Amino acid sequence: MASNSRGQFSSKFGFIMAAAGSAVGLGNIWGFPTQTASNGGAAFLFVYLAMVCVLAYPMLVAELTIGRYGQSNPIQSLKKVWPKGKVGAVILGITAMTVASLILSFYAIVAGWLVGAFAGSGLEILGMDAAAEWVTSFGDSRNLLLMVIFMAMTAHVVKNGVHDGIEAWSSRLMPILFILFGVLILYIFTQEGAMEGLEMYLIPDFSMITPKLLVSAMGQSFFSLSLGCATIMVYGSYLSKNVNLPKTAMQVAMVDTAVAIGAGLLILPAMFVAKHNGVEIFSATGELLSSDTLVFTVLPAMFHTMGTMGTVVSLVFFLLMMIAALTSSISMLEVPVACAIEELNQKRTTAVIWIAGVITAISAIIVFNFGALFGLVIKVTTVYGQPLLGLCWALFVGWLWSRDKVLQEIKQGYPELEKGLFWKIWPWYVRVVCPILMLMVFFA
């Protein structure tokens, strides 16, 4: 298909909201505060901010540049960057597509729990306690139903295309997310115990910085911007050539980081409000309890201690979580869909239906073999798949792609590129420093 028949983002705002939406997900609102609470609070926050600058941002520019240069799906884009290694490019493109699909297969299950928590709060307000109990209690049939509902929501947005689907929905949902965040943070700050959480979050104890913390922060910054699984590459392919890539990547990274910081401002004080209200959050040795399910156990327990107001706050909080999950899941589904449309010449609706169907079937298999598969799929995709693919993109841009072509691509939206500091540092940095940092994440 000719590139001009492809969808495009119609505005820079739409792209930033979509790309930030892809990046802003459970990794920020669930993963980041949990990592911060487990790794000494403010010390982790400071190292994380440094890692966004030294690893995530340069890689974000690299992945966006590959996508916009290719103006196509990951398979075609990688082929254009590496014309001599077409077989390798196809294998990597298919691997990225598979990793994105597998991440979505477990993500949809977790996002389904959020749908359940949201519905549970609504049902409680309506006095339907038995139904609320069912949608918030762990069980195969409930997990399956909620996952299918979430996948249907994701497929509905992607089916409408880049402009009417992804851009339109991201441009609506992301501002709502920011408003809900602001309201919840202000509300939590009025509660007893919140200031203790705020102190832990904002006053650093630099003796807490260990090699383990450095690697955790590096990994979190990388995953937080959804790097490695080609979602940013696909979004980059829908960008017009006159967009300034380094500046736009900076804006996406800033929005994503602001949401992560906001999640910390909400969840760490909320943990201490919960502690103040008698909810156990730390063990006798000071370890964070139930870190994996913090959002599903500690916070609902806190909301319950607030009476009716707590149910309303819970409803708003899980609506926020659902929006964050949805803006990420649409970017993951778009990766295989873009490949099917352009490699198999399929209509968008056809591609969305069968690919969403396959991913839903994989999710169903995980639901019914939860103990054996859930953790395994997460490990294979996020611990191994994403960092290794990210390393490949760095090697592509740093070593395989002619530096002159990279320069010409970025210059289209940034004519004075060669005069600035960015071009003096970034090419060798992506070539040497980023691969070393990613290998550290991987081998840790």
| N-end to C-end Cα span | 42 Å
The major β-sheet equals: none
Structural class: mainly alpha
Total count of helical runs of at least 4 residues = 18
Named CATH architecture: Orthogonal Bundle
The tally of structural domains comes to 1
What is the average of the pLDDT values? 89
- Give the beta-strand count: 0
Order of helices and strands: HHHHHHHHHHHHHHHHHH
How are the secondary structure elements laid out?
Elements: H1 12-23, H2 26-38, H3 42-70, H4 74-81, H5 86-125, H6 129-136, H7 140-159, H8 161-189, H9 194-202, H10 211-224, H11 231-237, H12 245-276, H13 294-304, H14 308-343, H15 348-368, H16 370-400, H17 403-411, H18 421-443
Helix pairs in contact: 1-8, 1-12, 1-14, 2-10, 2-12, 3-4, 3-10, 3-11, 3-12, 3-16, 3-18, 4-5, 5-6, 5-7, 5-14, 5-15, 5-16, 7-8, 7-14, 7-15, 8-12, 8-14, 9-12, 10-18, 11-14, 12-13, 13-14, 14-15, 15-16, 16-18
Task: Tell me about this structure.
Its main location: membrane. It is a multi-pass membrane protein. It is found in: Membrane. The chain crosses the membrane at residues 12-30, 42-66, 87-114, 144-161, 173-190, 221-240, 252-274, 294-323, 351-378, 384-401, 421-443. With 444 residues, the protein is an all-alpha fold. The protein has a single domain (3-443), classed as Hydantoin permease (Orthogonal Bundle), CATH 1.10.4160.10. It is 79% helix and 0% strand. The chain has 18 helices and no strands. It has helices at 12-23, 26-38, 42-70, 74-81, 86-125, 129-136, 140-159, 161-189, 194-202, 211-224, 231-237, 245-276, 294-304, 308-343, 348-368, 370-400, 403-411, 421-443. The radius of gyration is 21 Å and the shape is globular.
